[in-house]
């Protein structure tokens, strides 16, 4: 794939170093090694890692936190934090692939395709342990580990809540935002805050959480994460976009995305499609092609969360123009994806 970070002067070198840290992680006995090594080296977009790096750099250069800091040591820890976040993300994807019976991930066969479901789950669990092992090495205080464990609990709670709402034809927008805030958005927020916390050299949670920048960066990550998920929801409608799994597979499994929730206000949709025992992918595609207003409503909500993230970024004092410029570029990348969907017909 084209290097997303080619024009990111600061982020690119840090991400290259982060990829090396990730590539050096091996998991599973020798029998599994070839497949697991291939998966761990097949990096995704790494937006979460980039947020960890940028907010870590932002904190290092903010002299209100520390007057003197070992930049080389801090940079190393920030990169390790970014690698840990990517390992956490990959672990959740391995488990998702088992649940969804996905054949591919990032252009490669999934672990559950190559091995038994049981083995894939164990391999995902090993990634979780590697994530925590990496955190232990860089944690400024035990409260940093506790903070991550509480976010992990939030993410798992979101998964369980989503599962409890399967096939609920009365699912509300509020339900959707609650689930996404605990899943996708929580990981973006965790990535952003982790970099910031490591970069400040502040030890305890009770100290760092008092800083107003902490909540602003947390909100930024959450809002970017929700917008990111809405893009994923929209791409599931578009037959021209390859996502690694069949279109409307979430719908088939009873996981209703934002466009589906918006469409459910249409009584005919609920009667003819949602209440139909026989899943019909073609009928779904035809319905959404005939209802561009659903696409527009979904896009408008995505743009709203992008704007919220923009407001959060604008609240942050400018410490380094290049850092803030590269965070801005991440907003623009996600916004451009919404614009692309907006200019192509489903």
TrEMBL record:
Keywords: Magnesium, Metal-binding, Transferase. The keyword Transport does not apply. It holds the Pfam family polyprenyl_synt. CDD domains: Trans_IPPS_HT. InterPro entries: Isoprenoid_synthase_dom_sf (IPR008949), Polyprenyl_synt (IPR000092), Polyprenyl_synt_CS (IPR033749). It comes from the Bacteria. Its cofactor is Mg(2+). PANTHER family: ALL TRANS-POLYPRENYL-DIPHOSPHATE SYNTHASE PDSS1, GERANYLGERANYL PYROPHOSPHATE SYNTHASE. Belongs to the FPP/GGPP synthase family. This is Geranylgeranyl pyrophosphate synthase.
């Amino acid at each position: 794939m084209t290097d997303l970070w080619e024009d990111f002067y600061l982020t690119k070198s840090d991400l290259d170093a982060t990829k090396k840290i990730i590539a050096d992680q091996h998991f599973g006995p020798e029998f599994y090694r070839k497949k697991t090594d291939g998966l761990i080296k097949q990096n995704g977009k790494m937006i979460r890692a980039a947020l960890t790096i940028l907010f870590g750099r932002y904190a290092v250069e903010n002299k209100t936190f520390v007057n003197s800091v070992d930049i080389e040591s801090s940079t190393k820890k920030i990169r390790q934090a970014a690698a840990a976040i990517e390992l956490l993300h990959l672990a959740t994807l391995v488990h998702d692939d088992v649940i969804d019976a996905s054949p591919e991930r990032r252009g490669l066969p999934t672990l559950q395709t190559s091995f038994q479901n049981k083995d894939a789950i164990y391999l995902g669990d090993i990634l979780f342990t590697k994530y925590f092992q990496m955190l232990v090495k860089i944690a400024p205080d035990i409260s940093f580990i506790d903070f991550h464990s509480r976010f992990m609990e939030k993410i798992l709670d979101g998964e369980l809540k989503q599962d409890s709402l399967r096939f609920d034809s009365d699912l509300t927008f509020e339900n959707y935002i609650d689930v996404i805030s605990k899943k996708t958005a929580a990981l973006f927020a965790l990535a952003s805050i982790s970099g910031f916390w490591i970069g400040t050299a502040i030890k305890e949670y009770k100290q760092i959480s008092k800083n107003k920048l902490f909540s602003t960066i947390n909100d930024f990550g959450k809002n970017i994460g929700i917008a990111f998920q809405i893009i994923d929801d929209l791409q599931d409608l578009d037959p021209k976009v390859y996502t690694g799994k069949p279109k409307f597979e979430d719908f088939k499994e009873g996981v209703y995305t934002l466009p589906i929730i918006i469409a459910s206000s249409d009584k005919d949709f609920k009667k003819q499609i949602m209440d139909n025992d026989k899943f019909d992918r073609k009928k779904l595609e035809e319905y959404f092609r005939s209802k561009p207003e659903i696409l527009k409503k979904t896009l408008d909500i995505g743009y709203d969360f992008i704007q919220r993230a923009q407001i959060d970024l604008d609240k942050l004092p400018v410490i380094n123009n290049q850092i803030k410029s590269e965070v801005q570029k991440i907003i623009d990348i996600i916004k451009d994806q919404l614009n692309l969907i907006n200019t192509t017909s489903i």
